[in-house]
Amino acid sequence: MSLLNVSNGVGESWPNVKSEYIHAFDFEVFDIPRSRLLLTEYRPWAITTCVLYVSLIYAGQLWMKSRPAYNLRSTLVIWNGLLAIFSITGLFRTFPEFFFIVSRPDGLYKSACTSDIHNYATAFWALIFTLSKLVELGDTAFVILRKQKLIFLHWYHHITVLLMTWIYYETYEPCFRWFGTMNYFVHALMYTYFTLKAMKVRVPRSLAMCVTVLQIAQMIVGLYINVYTYNIKSSGVPCDRPMGNIVGGLSIYGTYFLLFIHFFVKAYFVGPKSKTN
């Protein structure tokens, strides 16, 4: 498959996808413009999925109200284990581009505002990352079927991440280098931790706290990148990010930051230790 010029959706063209720092496997070389058009076409389907997801939450809680909790330990080990492996793989395939560009002169600007030195491997794992947010909705099924407490942060985060990443892929956000790579890293640790817990491996409480701290740090970096690109766009310097994505990103990352701070304080300093999820 020949290298592609990819439209960024605002009338300009992205540089050719290159392979200077990582080899893209054959399965990672795909029709990027076509994939973006498909996600744009199926955006209403993604929104409908979110509405159905919320409806199933309430229906599931009602259905489980008079039933005993399911154990599902073996299934949970497999589920979290597969997501951990997926996240680790995604991290190894996206980090090379992130590091290569950020370590160059003007790396912050190039990584956040341009697709310079872009690679098919990163593009492929950005697409899979977006679609994986549909799969991760399944996390909630385990919470409901095991009759655990479902907090607002859990389902709000699932919905907004799905919609945000979906729209970001449609517009082919260069900031995926930051947002996606960070999320792969945090999820690699988080799902590994969940897998060990499901296997009844004794895990230090400090590790759970570390995962939450990393999630908060992820939100801080997300806020910073959005503020940075907002200032770049406002100053008239070219930046391949739609202003609507920047404003939406600021709003969503802002709410994540507040909600994760609240969860952190309640889980580790206010709530009973035995109840920490």
What are the salient characteristics of this protein?
277 residues; ELO_CS; globular; 10 helices; fatty acid elongase activity; lipid biosynthesis; mainly alpha; fatty acid metabolism; ELO_fam
Would you kindly provide a written description of the structure presented here, covering whatever features stand out?
The protein has 277 residues and is an all-alpha fold. It has a domain at 26-199. Helices cover 69% and strands 0% of the residues. It has ten helices and no strands. It has helices at 32-41, 43-64, 73-102, 107-113, 120-135, 139-145, 152-170, 176-198, 205-234, 243-270. Helix 1 crosses helix 7 (152-170), helix 3 runs antiparallel to helix 5 (120-135) and helix 5 runs antiparallel to helix 7 (152-170). The N and C termini lie far apart (46 Å). Mean pLDDT is 90; it is low at 1-16.
In brief:
The chain is mainly alpha-helical.
